[in-house]
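Cont'd.
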Amino acid sequence: KNEVEQSPQNLTAQEGEFITINCSYSVGISALHWLQQHPGGGIVSLFMLSSGKKKHGRLIATINIQEKHSSLHITASHPRDSAVYICAVYPYGGSQGNLIFGKGTKLSVKP
Amino acid sequence: SQTIHQWPATLVQPVGSPLSLECTVEGTSNPNLYWYRQAAGRGLQLLFYSVGIGQISSEVPQNLSASRPQDRQFILSSKKLLLSDSGFYLCAWSIIARAEQYFGPGTRLTVT
């Protein structure tokens, strides 16, 4: 079983829809990272959070440490949001560099 | 502001040839540096990380090596490439350990 599970694996939405991507993890963590990978491969850091909620523009990330779960929400989705969204965690006791990555959620937003 | 550069952007190399990929960071001092590989259809895998000049930690045994000759320079090398080394290689940096990581544009390596 993977330590970081994302759902869904693939998601197709119509422009304007509200989107939720889920991330569950099985280890104790010090922080969780949401990343966006564009079709060309480049990766952008969206959020890093260890509790509560963060918002940036149309993106909202929440985390529930007790339930070991995080969600990434996109409001008023747009075709330019089409990308792979990756959840990654820093586990307690891991090495200094050791992010554990989910396999990603591929989002396609249709106009 | 900080920027991270990688080159080359794409590379096609024959099996058995050497490899050198370079990553540099601007606008920060003493960053933590990371090399990741993403094989086709798979997730990101940490290969090496460095907390300072000459300090390299390897996460996965392989025929690759890394070096950090200068504070903001991180190099990924191989003496003899294997077909299985093909993939997308990403460099990243963070201000301290376990902090938010910022990724470079990546190098797409195809070993033929």
